[in-house]
Amino acid sequence: MAKNVGLYSTPRNAACDAIVDLIDADGNMGRLKIYDTIDTTLLAEIHLGNPSFGASTAGVATGNSVSANETSAVNTGTAAEFVIESQAGTRILSGTVGVGSDFDLNFNTVSINQGDAVNINTMTVTVPETSATL
Amino acid sequence: MTKENIENNKVDVIKRQPPLKKATTLGVVPNISLTGIVISKKKEV
């Protein structure tokens, strides 16, 4: 029989909250950094809200409004990856950047020029219900 | 099954036990979904 482990909403919420709460566990706002390749060129850094996410419902945590949108890009390049980290620099989440819903961070363009305004409109983190969805 | 049968089958039963496995894990990797927009500030020439 195939494996198909299920996770109910209470532990999903607990897991999701535990993850996103690490972003601002020290009481300071976290940051979302956009790179061409992680640890290569930082293109933009966005300060998240504090707290960065609300309490999870059905395993989904929704991001609060970011603290400093319209962040000016610090370098020119092609965005490919992002990292969400605490202010102290502890990395919590990462993902891909691209145009379209196939990417974790869906932008209108990946071409970022120094000085461009970079906005984050929506953020959700989901802990899946079953292993089959992974 | 009699006690004698149980004794006789003990070795066989042990042999039939599947190897120990680690507990099946869910492999909880969260899905992340973000949207954003880049507004060009390039000066028009």
Can you tag this structure with a few keywords?
heterodimer; A: 134 residues; mainly beta; five-stranded mixed beta sheet; three-stranded antiparallel beta sheet; 1 helix; 34% strand; B: 45 residues; alpha+beta; rod-shaped
Gap from first CA to last CA of chain B: 94 Å
> What is the assembly state of the chains in this entry?
heterodimer
Main sheet attributes: strand count, strand direction, barrel closure of chain A: 5 strands, mixed
Overall mean confidence score, pLDDT of chain B:
65
Overall average pLDDT of chain A: 91
The tally of helices of chain A reads 1
- What can be said about the biggest beta sheet of chain B? none
Radius of gyration of chain B: 31 Å
Estimate what percentage of residues of chain A fall within beta strands.
25-35%
Total number of β-strand segments of chain B?
1
- Amount of helix of chain B: 25-40%
Give the total of beta strands of chain A: 10
- Count of separate structural domains of chain B: 1
Label the overall shape of chain B: rod-shaped
**Which secondary-structure class do the elements of chain A indicate?**
mainly beta
Strand content of chain B: 15-25%
Q: Give the uncertain stretches of chain A in residue-range form.
A: none
Helical proportion of chain A?
under 10%
**Order of strands across the main sheet of chain A:** 2-1-6-7-8
Distance between the termini of chain A: 18 Å
Please, could you describe this protein's structure?
The complex is a heterodimer of chains A (134) and B (45). Chain A has 134 residues and is mainly beta. Chain A has one domain (9-124). Chain A is 10% helix and 34% strand. In chain A, the strands form 3 sheets. In chain A, strands 2-1-6-7-8 form a 5-stranded mixed sheet, with no helix packed on it. A 3-stranded antiparallel sheet of chain A has the order 3-10-4. Chain A has a two-stranded antiparallel ribbon with strand order 5-9. Chain B has 45 residues and is an alpha+beta fold. Chain B has one helix at 3-16, and one strand at 31-39. Chain B is rod-shaped and about 50 Å long. The N and C termini of chain B lie far apart (94 Å). The interface between A and B is medium-sized, with 41 and 19 residues. Strand 10 (117-126) of chain A pairs antiparallel with strand 1 (31-39) of chain B, so a sheet runs across the interface.
